[in-house]
Amino acid sequence: MKKEMMALLLTLIFVTAIGIFADQSMAETKNVRSVGQFSKVEFMPVGDVEGHLFIIGESRGLNFVDGEVAVFTGWVQCDTIKGIGPCKNYVKSVYQDGSVTITKGQMKLTISQDGKTGLYEDYEGEFIMGTGRFAGIKGSFSYKGKRVTPISPGLKETRGDFFIEGTMTYTLPPK
């Protein structure tokens, strides 16, 4: 009985290890560069402490994923005090073949003292869903970036142009 149990245990360990390594070998890691600008932004002074702003924005732009291009639309919500604070966002990316990914992320925003630029740090997240060739996608991303122009009132002069770069790693279910 002990030999049978030991054989069963070793078999389970072996099968589990094969599954783990198979999943890892199927994971794809892609380099990502994105450029975009804000199409809508609302700022609400909270008023409880000096410099406390609640920010909601919508952005649009292009993702360049290892030579492939996708159009993205993103929605972000930030809670900053004196230009520093956490942000959460969702991003929908539509690829040239019509396939779609939706991601959910969080980052630290640091706005420069003059308000003209900003840093996006510790930007990490996960894939929520995909369609087309990305149906069943699972994975994560890690980015960093910078806003290079100010967000003008009414978005008439500059729209808070930004760039982001990093990597995404994902798996797709077997076909």
3D architecture notes:
- The protein is mainly β.
- The protein has a single domain, classed as Beta Barrel (AOC barrel-like), CATH 2.40.350.
- The protein has 1 helix and 8 strands, in the order αββββββββ.
- It has one helix spanning 2-26, and strands at 28-45, 52-65, 68-81, 84-95, 100-111, 118-130, 138-147, 162-171.
- The chain has an 8-stranded antiparallel barrel.
- A hairpin with a 7-residue loop joins strand 6 and strand 7.
- The radius of gyration is 21 Å and the shape is elongated.
CATH topology term: AOC barrel-like
Order of helices and strands: HEEEEEEEE
Give the % helix.
10-25%
Q: Note the total helix count.
A: 1
Rg calc:
21 Å
Q: What does the main sheet amount to?
A: 8 strands, antiparallel, barrel
Going by CATH, the architecture would be Beta Barrel
CATH class: Mainly Beta
Tally of discrete structural domains: 1
Write down how many β-strands occur, each being a DSSP E stretch of 2 or more residues.
8
Per the principal axes of the C-alpha atoms, what is the gross shape? Answer: elongated
**Low-confidence blocks of residues:** 5-25
Label the structural class.
mainly beta
Give the overall average pLDDT: 88
User: Into which percentage range does the β-strand content fall?
Assistant: over 45%
Task: For the record, give the distance between the C-alpha atoms at the N and C termini, rounded to a whole number.
Answer: 40 Å
What strand line-up does the widest sheet have?
1-2-3-4-5-6-7-8
